[in-house]
């Protein structure tokens, strides 16, 4: 069994539209950050570091750096412990961004449960019969078909090949 990842990190910026950023986090979720809403919540005004980001041209200069969102065009001056002044890009911690974001439910084209259920019904099998053939339980088959659980590739292969008698073919586009 895989361990839960405790510290959220952004692994990919998927899409930027206006002041919205769709990101993939290290737990595999795609999440939406609505910065128009966030900046309103924070009460961003002219005196704040975030103010230049209200301009979409400045906002879209966002990059992924150190597993979080970073704007090199917005400079923050901080003092190091030794008293030296440092200039850093504006960043928001990935843990904060995770909390501020909303999960995007993946469309059915990315879900395997619907595929397994369709193939099972086409083969004329009950969940119990498929479970027996693939060495698992009816309860687990039900959870998979309803996209209520993650599925490891080896289990997916076992259900498709041993349970359904089909060949698993995976493509990456």
UniProtKB/TrEMBL annotation:
<protein>
    <submittedName>
        <fullName>Helix-turn-helix protein</fullName>
    </submittedName>
</protein>
<dbReference type="Pfam" id="PF01381">
    <property type="entry name" value="HTH_3"/>
</dbReference>
<feature type="domain" description="HTH cro/C1-type">
    <location>
        <begin position="116"/>
        <end position="162"/>
    </location>
</feature>
<dbReference type="GO" id="GO:0003677">
    <property type="term" value="F:DNA binding"/>
</dbReference>
<dbReference type="InterPro" id="IPR036782">
    <property type="entry name" value="NE0471-like_N"/>
</dbReference>
<dbReference type="InterPro" id="IPR001387">
    <property type="entry name" value="Cro/C1-type_HTH"/>
</dbReference>
<dbReference type="InterPro" id="IPR010982">
    <property type="entry name" value="Lambda_DNA-bd_dom_sf"/>
</dbReference>
């Amino acid at each position: 069994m895989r361990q839960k990842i405790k510290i959220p990190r952004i692994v990919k910026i998927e899409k930027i539209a206006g002041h919205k950023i769709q990101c993939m986090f290290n737990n595999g979720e795609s999440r939406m950050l609505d910065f128009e809403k966030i900046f309103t919540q924070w009460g961003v005004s002219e005196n704040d570091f975030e103010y230049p980001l209200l301009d979409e041209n400045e906002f879209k200069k966002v990059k992924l750096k150190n597993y979080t969102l970073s704007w090199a065009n917005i400079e923050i001056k901080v003092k190091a412990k030794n008293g030296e002044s440092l200039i850093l890009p504006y960043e928001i911690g990935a843990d904060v961004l995770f909390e501020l974001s909303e999960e995007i439910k993946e469309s059915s084209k990315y879900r395997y449960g619907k595929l397994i259920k369709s193939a099972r019904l086409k083969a004329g099998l009950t969940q119990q019969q498929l479970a027996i053939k693939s060495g698992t339980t009816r309860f687990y088959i039900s959870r998979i078909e309803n996209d209520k659980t993650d599925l490891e590739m080896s289990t997916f292969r076992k259900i498709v090949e041993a349970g359904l008698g089909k060949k698993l073919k995976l493509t990456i586009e």
